[in-house]
């Protein structure tokens, strides 16, 4: 698996051109190679009190051809340190639901693959691969991560493959001169992620996240964080509860000067499924709570399917990806709020809620906000 630059967007053109000029090649990676079964080179630890998930990865690097001078050894060590910094920079600062993701890379330089420990991923930094002209086209070098098996479905969050480890494993192969984004992309494979592009056409896999696993240098998406956590097989997702509050201040319902009603809504969701590209497990969240209504029971509003009377009533509403709205049935009508998924849950769009009835929709003039909280959610 590898990554390079394909059909760059205009906004990235200058950056991509600078990378081409600096590196002299575009780097993609091959499909994972067959090899020995993997030991645990990547460990995942959940701290419930701190609400963190710490990922620790053990990488051992060697260079081909081997360093022949003190200067070459210094460059080798500097590249190992650059790869570590690039990986930690790209993969830290994210979260899985309300738990912060902390990525720590233990990286060391070695004389060869024979020095790899059973719990280390051996990585060859190939200093002898340079672009060459062939039939008017650049023969692009490829970086790849050697793995015990290949992925079946790039969209699935189920465990797919793990990197080979130890001194007898077929080593992963990275270009010595790879840009930082490629190091970060390759590390995504060490976390068990697939390429999000179609091999040969380099187009985005339909339904996949357009992120670092599609084009190096772009940010990691929430969906890829979800995939990495779930594919690790080391995180008990049931133990990670992240409640959400839902609140709508008093909104007025009225049509053409007719007597109307006011409605306020408050509730919560005990947990939610995070953003995902897995078609069998889309992101979703279910809210419940109460709504307070003040109105004139004798004054029907023609737009709506029910007559509002003063009182408190329970509500339930469920959102599922990829819908852009949260809909909460209420009597014979539906309360609607524009939303979008994020790594920290469902987020309200900055637009007022509406109420929809059989004859049309009316804005309430207020936003139904969704925010994380500590709970509990009754």
Write a structural description.
- The protein is α+β, with helices and mostly antiparallel strands.
- It has two domains: 10-237, no CATH class; 241-372.
- It has helices spanning 13-23, 70-91, 180-190, 222-232; strands at 42-47, 52-64, 94-96, 99-109, 121-126, 132-134, 137-139, 172-175, 244-253, 261-269, 272-273, 284-295, 311-320, 325-330, 333-342, 345-348, 354-357, 360-363, 369-372.
- The strands form four sheets. Strands 1, 2, 3, 4, 5 and 8 form a six-stranded mixed β-sheet that branches.
- Strand 14 (325-330) and strand 15 form a beta hairpin.
- Helix 2 crosses helix 3.
- Mean pLDDT is 81; it is low at 2-38 and 130-140.
Average residue-wise pLDDT: 81
The fraction of residues in strands falls at 25-35%
Computed structural class: alpha+beta
Rounded Rg? 26 Å
Write a short abstract of this structure:
The chain is of the alpha+beta class and 378 residues long.
Task: For the structure shown, list the relevant keywords.
six-stranded mixed sheet; disordered N terminus; alpha+beta; 378 residues; six-stranded antiparallel sheet
Layout of helices and strands:
Layout: H1 13-23, E1 42-47, E2 52-64, H2 70-91, E3 94-96, E4 99-109, E5 121-126, E6 132-134, E7 137-139, E8 172-175, H3 180-190, H4 222-232, E9 244-253, E10 261-269, E11 272-273, E12 284-295, E13 311-320, E14 325-330, E15 333-342, E16 345-348, E17 354-357, E18 360-363, E19 369-372
Parallel strand pairs: 2-4, 2-5, 5-8
Antiparallel strand pairs: 1-2, 3-4, 6-7, 9-10, 9-19, 10-12, 11-12, 12-13, 14-15, 15-16, 15-17, 17-18
Helix pairs in contact: 2-3
